Every structure is written in structure tokens, then in C-alpha cells.
Amino acid sequence: MGTSVTISAAADEDAEQILKLQYLCYQPEAALYDDYRIEPLTQSLEALRAELSAGCVLVARLGEEVVGSVRGTVDADGTAEIAKLIVHPRLQRHGLGGRLLSAVEQRLADERQARRYRLFTGHRSDGSLRLYRSHGYAPVGTEQHSRRLSVVTLEKEIQREAAAEEFVARA
Questions:
Q1: Is 99 helix (H, G, I), strand (E, B) or coil?
Q2: Which of 40, 53, 69, 96 lies in disulfide reach of 26, CB 3.0 to 4.6 Å?
Q3: Average pLDDT of the chain?
Q4: Is 3 helix (H, G, I), strand (E, B) or coil?
Q5: How many domains does the chain have?
Q6: In sequence order, what DSSP letters do the residues of 102-148 get, joined into one string?
Q7: 86: helix, coil or strand?
Q8: Closest CA to 18 of 85, 116, 91, 79
Q9: C-alpha distances out from residue 77 to 54, 116, 138, 160, Å
Q10: Between the CA of residue 23 and those of 1, 18, 79, 93, 155, what are the distances in Å?
Q11: What is the dihedral sign for C-alpha 156, 102, 80, 62?
Q12: What secondary structure does DSSP assign to 149-170, as a single string?
């Protein structure tokens, strides 16, 4: 029998695996925009470790291997910024990205009192845009970053009352 994928908080010892996976996962994105200087491809191990200690970083594991990751922070206004959602190419299109997204949303709401979620993706990143829209995100703006790249900002409000009513209805 195969090992199932588990999602948990990242630890400092996961940093190297996350960085290698990030580099692998962002290659197609860099090719799409013909820009290999994007931040996920140039981030240092030290910068990633700083994110691990300051934010909410989750990993998906298949056995001991890190096969996915996502990061989030919450600002003083309660807006959670979700970033660098990555899934190993061999496991993409099997729902793991959605599981990671839901897990980080839940963690940011429960532990850091997020009131809304915000994320960003490139305008040609159709798979990412599809995933985010299917999880209730709506575009709220687009910013031109270069001749080749426009970044789409998507947001989603937390529906605390609806979630509480649904929980009560199930009980």
C-alpha cells in the first residue's frame, strides 16, 4: 500500500526541501513569463528560514518527502496574505493544492484571527487562477509589473457566521 499525503506545520529542518521544491515548481512559471529572476527562484535559504519563523508555513509530506507547501501571514487589519502555494509536478491536479490552500486558510483564521484572505498570481497562470476561483477567490485588481507580467490580486472574505451555522446544522 502507498503512503498517504499529510499536511502539517513546517519545521526549520524542512527549509532545504521546501526551497528545492519551490525552485522546481516555479520553473514553468518563469518560462511562462520569460523571467527567471522571479523571487521564488532567487530566494535564499536564510530568507526562507526567516519566513518559517515569522509566518505560518505548512508542508505536505509523502512519507519523509516534502511534496507541497504554502505560506501565510496576517497583517494588523486581519488580512491574510497567502503565498508560494507549491505542489510537486508529479502530484499536481490531484487536489493537493486545494487541500493546502484550505489548511492554511483554516490555520490563519484559527490561530491568527484572519478576517479575509488575499493572494497574487500572474495573469497567464491559468491553473492557479482556476484553483483560486474554485475556492471562492475573486479578482480585485491587476498591476502591471513588467512588459510581460501583470499580477492579479484575488481576495476572499471569511464567512464565519455561515461556517458556524453549517456546523450547528450538522450536529
A1: helix
A2: 40
A3: 91
A4: coil
A5: 1
A6: HHHHHHHHHHH---EEEEEEETT-HHHHHHHHHTT-EEEEEEE-SSS
A7: strand
A8: 85
A9: 17, 9, 19, 16
A10: 30, 9, 27, 19, 26
A11: negative
A12: -EEEEEEEE--HHHHHHHHHHH
How far apart CA 100 and CA 59 sit, in angstroms, is: 8
Give DSSP secondary structure letters for 52-85: HHHSEEEEEEETTEEEEEEEEEE-TTSEEEEEEE
Average pLDDT of span 96-107: 97
CATH code at position 151: 3.40.630.30
22: how many CB neighbours lie within 10 A of its CB? 17
In this prediction the pTM is 0.89
60 forms beta bridges with 7, 68
Residue 15 contacts residue 52 (beta carbons within 8 Å):
yes
pLDDT of 166 above 80: no
Retrieve residue 7's grid coordinates.
Answer: 499536511
Name the residue range of residue 107's domain.
Answer: 5-170
